[in-house]
Design a protein that fits this description.
By secondary structure, this protein is of the alpha/beta class. Helices cover 41% and strands 14% of the residues.
């Protein structure tokens, strides 16, 4: 079986922009994204001219955010794509929601990968293995996708479908505690003791109260902060993962792929095998 990462394919429905850290540090998340697109027969590509969804202009200034948003849209137009597909990244998603603000009403629509996976799963287009994930699982709402209430239910419905023991944090959704690394502070390792101590203790207590062994967070910044919180607050038994990491574990790749021949790319496409 071949699962491809298609590069620079023109006329795809989705041009995909994950956090660059997924390429470097979160391989299972990125493979999960590719797996979902594979089994659903999704039309997608990654542009080599701009392949990073991260937009630190959200923290710096509107001018910088507008420049980066326009770079994303320019790459979609270069490839003649239809839509922007954002990976598991909170601030990349929130920044992309400003595409119509900065680029006008005719700019490409923005879809988060959680929304895509949820739609396809609810439609029965993601085949699952009979066995669900048995470990207790909880979910952390990243501030940048949950505070507005835009993406809260989709990840929960996915997790309930693939996990035997899903438990909520309290509070949750728009009231969920920040991981403690917001505003870009997660990148400042010199203040780690402060981030995971005074800023992270309440989050650590919230995680501990669930009794979960798997902590799902669809945000690159949150993952880094939460992993360090668990390390520094005696929560070594907790494994921090992306939602697509778990989808990768439960997808049944034995089911024929829509419009494909065991996942082989169409003639004239390019890609790297997973």
């Amino acid at each position: 079986m071949k699962i491809t990462f298609p590069f620079d394919i023109e006329d795809a429905e989705f041009v995909f922009f994950p956090a660059v850290s997924d390429y470097l540090l979160e391989a299972d998340t990125l493979m999960g994204n590719a797996a979902v697109m594979h089994v659903t027969g999704g039309s997608w590509t990654i542009g080599t001219g701009n392949y990073d969804g991260i937009n630190y202009g959200l923290f710096y200034s509107d001018r910088m955010m507008e420049r980066i948003v326009n770079n994303v849209v320019t790459e979609v137009h270069r490839l003649n794509g239809d839509k922007i597909l954002v990976g598991e990244c909170g601030h990349a998603t929130r920044s992309a929601w400003y595409v119509p603000t900065f680029c006008g009403p005719d700019a490409p629509p923005v879809i988060n990968c959680l929304q895509y996976a949820h739609e396809k799963l609810m439609a029965g287009e993601i085949p699952l293995k009979p066995e669900k994930i048995k470990e207790r699982v909880t979910y952390h709402d990243p501030c940048n996708i949950a505070r507005s209430g835009r993406i809260t239910e989709e990840p929960r419905e996915i997790l309930k479908a693939i996990c035997e023991d899903f438990v909520e944090m309290t509070p949750n959704r728009t009231e969920n505690y920040c991981c403690g690394g917001g505003g870009g502070t997660v990148s400042i390792d010199e203040i780690r003791k402060f981030r995971t101590g005074p800023m992270g203790k309440r989050k650590a207590d919230q995680i501990r109260a669930t009794g979960a062994h798997l902590l799902v967070s669809p945000c690159a910044n949150c993952k880094k902060q939460l992993k360090e919180i668990c390390e520094d607050n005696d929560l070594e038994e907790v494994r921090v993962v992306g939602l697509h990491d778990l989808l990768l574990e439960v997808i049944d790749f034995g089911v024929p792929v829509p419009g494909g021949d065991d996942g082989d790319p169409e003639p004239g496409t390019a890609g790297e095998e997973e």
